[in-house]
Amino acid sequence: MGNGILKNGKKGLVAMAIILIAFWLHSCKTGEKVAVEKSGAELWSEQCSRCHNMPDPTTYSDDKWETVSMHMKVRANISTKEIELIKQFLQSANGD
Amino acid sequence: MSKLIKYICFILFLSIAPFHQSFAQEGDSVQKFKSFKLSRITFTGNGYCGFDLELDKQLTDTTGMTSSSISVGLAPILLWKITPNLFFESELDLMMEHGMVTAELGYANLTYSIHKFGTIQVGKFLSPFGLFSERYHPFWINNAPNEPLGFDHEGYSPQSELGLCIRNGTTHFNYAVYVSSSPLMDTGADVVKNAGKIVYHTDFGTDINDKIGFGGRVGVLPFKNSVLEIGASYKWMQLKLGDHYHGGTVTHSHSSGEDLSALYIGNIYAIDLTLQKNLPGIKGRIEIKAQAQYSDAGKNNFIKLSPSGKTEVAYTYLNTTKIGYVLFAYKPVFANNKILKKTGIYLRGGYMELPLGSLWYENTQEVSGGFNYSFKWNNTLKLGYQQILSAKKSYTNSIMIQWATAF
User: B45-406, which class in CATH?
Assistant: First the structure.
């Protein structure tokens, strides 16, 4: 029974392994060059309007942006470097 | 089973391999984050309140049935950045519809983030299967006042996972892979009609399937400014029959039995597309969101009452479902008029084909459209119209008003 069940899932697991290897090689080679060239404000306007309206920096205090940025990093698969720049921009533009 | 475990270990090993290069780069942020601060616990959340007026009609008939309903929802979210790399998120979903209040744990998970490697998430998390469940379902984000056909709470698309997820992203590419508890397949014990439905939502007190499954999504963003994302998802499930309404053991109302120990293998696939672009030429911004999916859970055997209602008869059907939608939205964000720039319109088309031969068979299409007004980025009033046309030659027209917010 176990083997019968595995037959179906095997292809999926192999595909996932290939994706992970490809991703790893890709991130080793190119790093985050493109992102680093952009400013926090640019990244905010590009990244933070992909799923919902672009959030207004004045909505939250510095501490709240610290936490919410992490929430969005995970939800939107944003790289650590990019989210750090966005967070710094939001914290500098919120008037706190 | 041991083979499956080996595969999972292999995938985890591949993911963990880049760890060594990550730790070195983290010193800086750790320095800045020395002390524990209670303020890194944050409460956010979202809520909505809506009114829906429905008119059901047979195509051959001139009379119809009108009904109305009010729905209210509140989802408080607790976020805690425990250390620069360790993060906790949880959401409680409170809903009131047709006078019934339900409470559900939307998600509760712990995430560990490692610079280049990405994140490892453990607990209950929103399913990265397709984009609707994870990214577009909150009503303050969803352009329309309701979900596309089949993507609702009781619908046919994975909503959350209980397990472990690894994810990462760069400007052009992202992925999420997970190992999680498989969903249950409804026995039909509670509502006979539902026999064979894959139960993608888990309420408090729900049985949990101890058979594991796995899945993943890859997303490609071919352009530098992230205007377009195309994704593909796959999920493999070991579907155990279970009663998802009452905790504890399966209670079955049929006297002669279908095989409750049956294990069906389910495969579900999806492709998704998101395009959002500012077009100053037409003084606005356009958005296109689309998702199409197909699931196959093999041939299932169940028992139903004969038309006379006196005897029970066995029936078999091929458990496949197809659902999908395309949404187009336009927001005149570059208009000179202050009021106009806060407005938006949307148009959505969708379809849902449920298994022929099952008691939950449906073959429906929808067209909907509406108007939005955003008081602020996180505060929107929506007016929508929807027409659902079913193969049974009936249609439902709805008018919906909804206010949705995030806080």
Answer: mainly beta
